[in-house]
Amino acid sequence: MKKALAEFVGTLTLVLFGCGAAVLAGGEVGQLGIAFAFGLAIVAMAYGIGPVSGCHVNPAVSFGAFIAGRMPLNEMLVYWAAQIAGAIAGAGLLLLIASGTDGYSLASDGLGQNGWGAGYLGEYTLVAALVFEFVMTCLFVLVILGVTGAGNSAFAGLAIGLTLVVIHIVGIQVTGVSVNPARSIGPALFAGGTAIAQLWLFIAAPLAGAALAGVLFRAKLLSQD
């Protein structure tokens, strides 16, 4: 239960801080500020709840750890449930806060949901979105599995958070950056419409990318031993 609660709180924080930066302060902090909000949220949670649950706060990370042989199936499923619930709670809190001003409209301003195509940020294609989410999640999980392995560094949380910052700097205009199914599910459930219709990509591509990273570590192709 401690691990589940930690994952719930951590994922809630990621969505509230990251998507919150986009929704509440996007015009002031810009794309770079949003990128750092997501990354620094991970850094904070890595040191805050990392000792309890490992701070996955991402079903793709848990899936990669499972494929790599680092966690059992039943524990992964508990993590998934806590992460998705936390993301939904974080998105709900963000909506409650954002609705505190007459200048906000969920229909027009959104809730930091992911997407692609006409009318969404850089209007990238489905193929571009799919490739981006697959490749970036794979690289992200590779970093996580690498820095949290045997003899891991006290700076692991910082490395993971900065990797997420760079991924957002590169890809916000492509998909808004998911690399995390829970982060996508939370805002999409409230935004509805296109966000729900496109949600499949932000579940399938990150899980596939994480699986590849897990396979590489399970086969010891990227591990020291």
Automatic annotation (TrEMBL):
Compartmental location: Cell membrane
Membrane topology term: Multi-pass membrane protein
Residue stretches in coiled coil: none
Gene3D superfamilies: Glycerol uptake facilitator protein (1.20.1080.10)
Record field: transmembrane: 35-57, 77-98, 124-147, 154-175, 195-217
Endpoints of the signal sequence: none
The entry's keywords: Cell membrane, Membrane, Transmembrane, Transmembrane helix, Transport
Matches recorded under InterPro entries: Aquaporin-like, Aquaporin_transptr, MIP, MIP_CS
SUPFAM superfamilies documented for this protein: Aquaporin-like
A Pfam short name: MIP
Family in the record: Belongs to the MIP/aquaporin (TC 1.A.8) family.
PANTHER family: AQUAPORIN TRANSPORTER, MIP17260P
Name of the protein: Aquaporin
Organism of this sequence: Hyphobacterium vulgare
